[in-house]
Amino acid sequence: MIDQAVFDYDRQDASGATCTAHAWAKIPAPLQPAERADLKARAAALLSARGATLVAHYYVDGELQDLALETGGCVADSLEMARFGRDAKAQTLIVAGVRFMGETSKILSPGKRVLMPDLDATCSLDLGCPADEFAAFCDAHPDREVVVYANTSAAVKARADWMVTSSCALEIVSHLKAQGRKILWAPDRHLGRYIQEQTGADMLMWNGACIVHDEFKGLELDLLRKDHPGAMILVHPESPKSVVAQADVVGSTSVLIKAVVEGSAKEYIVATDNGILHRMRQLAPGKTLIEAPTAGSSATCKSCAHCPWMAMNGLQGVIDCLEKGTGEIHVAEPTRLKALVSIERMLDFTAALKASKTAGFVPNIGAA
């Protein structure tokens, strides 16, 4: 039995380091422009011929993002990816992202074929929250509502009462607090701390972190701000407290993109995975985007904020999915049905919340 709100973080770091090295080794080699154009055209033709839809996250390669939009798919954060995949007419979904995103699509669409460019593309938060250890943690605190971040396995979601994303976590936790619920939160401790500070909820934390966002440096960000005094600071809440404290906007990927598009500043310092800059540049071409620092001034790479698992997604992987049927996601039915409850509860809540903002009432989605 786990006797604290933590697990062996040293072990997670060691495991994560090994997996990260493996991920970097599998990143597709750079392509010449003609090669990229050829692969992109082949992938587009196959998507059409197979009647498949490509759903891509903001953090994957820009060519994949463009391919998704050009072929009727979507580029989005994990919440919108979940919605889009569920509602798409296509019976084959290609999910360009990391494994938990493919699993979520399969959970919501069991009758559809869900394929991923590389099944080894995972997430440090997922890796750092093993289902058996997490179940023991939950069993040790039966009085708490279990709320898990989307960046977890299907098995962890199956143990939860609610799944949340960074775009809806504040509202859902606020809703649970208003009902007098105590919360068991997993796995990202930075996001959990931010939500706890914002809501005042009673939250017991699992000790996990994203290997990308955890590397942003508060001191270095402060120095960068002095060099760009007019810049707006955009921060994802998975970042450390010293970074979040300096933000003008804290939010999900979609919130940060909206801030760039609608903001009046000319410069924006962005503290999230640098894959998002592709879409930001497309939607706000006249604005200057600056990557937040992940290292000191003497480092050879002052800002290296890119997920190695997201980088494993490539055009050839999409082609292999469609030509060879590789990368298929399977979720065992007992697990799928249990995980579906936590995901649908989130989707129902966010749909009701959206309607309430128009109608002027507060949604009353029951807790577990």
Structure commentary:
This protein is α/β, with parallel strands linked by helices and 368 residues long. The protein has three domains: 31-123 and 310-324, 3-Layer(aba) Sandwich (Rossmann fold), CATH 3.40.50; 125-211, NadA-like (Rossmann fold); 213-291, NadA-like (Rossmann fold, 3-Layer(aba) Sandwich). The protein is built from 16 helices and twelve strands. The two termini are 24 Å apart.
Helix content: 40-55%
Which strand order do you get reading across the main beta sheet? 2-1-3-4
**Mind telling me the CATH class of the largest domain?**
Alpha Beta
Distance between the termini: 24 Å
Low-confidence stretches: 1-17
SSE-based structural type: alpha/beta
CATH architecture heading of the largest domain: 3-Layer(aba) Sandwich
Give me the CATH superfamily of the largest domain: NadA-like
Can you describe this structure in just a few lines?
The protein has 368 residues and is an alpha/beta fold. The chain has 16 helices and 12 strands. Helix 2 packs parallel to helix 3 and helix 4 runs parallel beside helix 5.
Key structural traits:
368 residues, Rossmann fold, four-stranded parallel sheet, 16 helices, 12 strands
SSE layout and pairings?
Elements: H1 9-25, H2 33-50, E1 52-57, H3 62-70, E2 74-76, H4 78-87, E3 92-96, H5 99-108, E4 113-115, H6 124-127, H7 131-139, E5 145-149, H8 154-159, E6 162-164, H9 169-178, E7 183-186, H10 189-199, E8 203-205, H11 218-227, E9 232-235, H12 241-244, E10 249-250, H13 253-262, E11 267-271, H14 277-283, E12 288-291, H15 315-324, H16 333-359
Parallel strand pairs: 1-2, 1-3, 3-4, 5-6, 5-7, 7-8, 9-10, 9-11, 11-12
